[in-house]
């Protein structure tokens, strides 16, 4: 099979740095998960490891022409 099982899947956004405001395992819950976002001092990255069977919430300014 072509299944690659691991802990994280790297995601990179070319031309931007972004803030990782949240991550979780399982399905994203739009009612509960945003309440846990770190909007005060989130880490600034250009690559993030998205948890296997999970999600990552990113915040960035889309101003790169």
From TrEMBL:
InterPro entries: Cu-oxidase_C, Cu-oxidase_fam, Cupredoxin. Pfam families: Cu-oxidase_2. Residues 8-65 form the Plastocyanin-like domain. One of its GO terms (molecular function) is copper ion binding. Belongs to the multicopper oxidase family. Lignin degradation and detoxification of lignin-derived products. This is Plastocyanin-like domain-containing protein. It comes from Nymphaea colorata.
């Amino acid at each position: 099979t072509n299944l690659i099982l691991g802990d994280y899947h790297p995601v990179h956004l070319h031309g931007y740095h972004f803030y990782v405001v949240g991550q979780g395992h399982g399905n994203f819950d739009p009612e509960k998960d945003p309440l846990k976002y770190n909007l005060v001092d989130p880490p600034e990255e250009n690559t993030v490891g998205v948890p296997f069977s999970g999600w990552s919430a990113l915040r960035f300014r889309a101003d790169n022409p």
